[in-house]
UniProtKB/TrEMBL annotation:
Gene3D superfamilies the record matches: Endonuclease Chain A
Signal peptide range: none
Source organism per UniProt: Parashewanella spongiae
GO molecular function: catalytic activity
Protein name per the record: PLD phosphodiesterase domain-containing protein
Biological process annotations from GO: phosphorus metabolic process
Boundaries of every PLD phosphodiesterase domain copy: 89-115
Length: 308
């Protein structure tokens, strides 16, 4: 008798215990996915604030349920405008499946603020499995895609008549975007840029940080951490700020601030994240500061996760 060759392989499987773990896994798999291969998503219901999970640098094939009133049609309309997204609809779809080339997530979370715990929302109790055994799941998605249909303007209008904005606000704890700009004096001190290279945080923010960390206000690390946080919050709100840095005279985006922060090391990044976590909840600051601190916190948390 000839030799019997037995093929074996390792199947990776990981239990995702809550919505934050699911969201983090989505972000990691998105980062690892080649640009040439589509990310396939068959998730029934979509809500506000999920847009940042759809990267402009990846290609997507998405199937949603637009007929049951659980999906925000404005979110779908926005996704339809993206050149890197193909999105279709399928009645009775109730799955929550996210598929990449190397791994897939099968679980209970919709793409909503509650389902994924976005914007510091505690959200619903969720769980999922991440698995490297994707072949059968991809075949299933191909069948779902084949049964789905294109979304028309008529479909969007019909969905709007079924969807209750009020219900979404109740169940997803949506925080409205501030109508007023950030008060610059609440965020920054009045001193011109000198040897510090960037604008420094206001004394209120420095005092807030030092009190929470039980350190002296003269601590140089405190000045550096609060300055990074203030600049990050400022540009998160859509502003730009001048610097005295030779190769970066203006911070226009959060990535600009993050690059500067990165040069100071991981400990600085973690301290800035910790400050933003308290700043977004501190009722002593204006709603504008708290709202944009939360957006900066979400951005920085994701960046640090992807860089690990």
């Amino acid at each position: 008798m000839g030799d019997v060759i037995v093929k074996s392989w390792m199947i990776h499987m990981n239990f995702l215990k809550d919505n934050k773990a699911i969201r983090n896994c989505i972000e990691i798999l998105t980062c690892k996915q080649p640009n040439s291969e589509p990310i396939m998503i068959a998730v029934a219901y979509w809500g506000k604030r999920v847009e940042y999970l759809i990267s402009d640098n990846r290609y997507y094939k998405i199937v949603c349920n637009l007929s049951d009133g659980g999906t925000n049609p404005d979110v779908i309309s926005d996704l339809m405008k993206k050149e890197n997204v193909e999105i279709r609809k399928l009645e009775r779809l109730h799955s929550k499946v996210f598929i990449t080339e190397k791994s897939a997530i099968v679980g209970s979370s919709n793409f909503s603020q509650n389902g994924l715990g976005l914007d510091s929302c505690i959200g619903t109790i969720e769980a999922a499995i991440e698995t490297s055994e994707t072949l059968e799941i991809m075949n299933w998605f191909d069948q779902i895609w084949g049964r789905s249909s294109k979304i028309t303007d008529k479909d969007i209008n019909k969905a709007r008549s079924m969807f209750s904005v009020c219900d979404e606000k109740v169940f997803e704890n949506v925080k409205p975007k501030p109508e007023e700009p950030i008060n610059e004096n609440e965020l920054f001190d009045g001193e011109p840029i000198k040897r510090n290279k960037t604008r420094m945080a206001s004394s209120r923010i420095v005092n807030h940080y030092c009190k929470n960390e039980s350190i002296d206000i003269s601590n140089r690390t405190a000045r550096r951490v609060t300055a990074h946080a203030a600049n990050l919050v400022w540009v998160a709100a859509g502003n730009s700020v001048e610097t005295a840095i030779s190769d970066k005279s203006i911070f226009k985006t959060m990535d600009d601030v993050f690059s500067r922060m990165t040069s100071k090391g991981i400990k600085t990044q973690d301290k800035v994240l910790s400050l933003l976590a308290t700043l977004k909840e501190e009722k002593g600051f204006s709603y504008e500061i708290r709202y944009w601190a939360e957006q900066a916190y979400i951005y920085l948390e994701r960046k640090l996760l992807m860089d690990k």
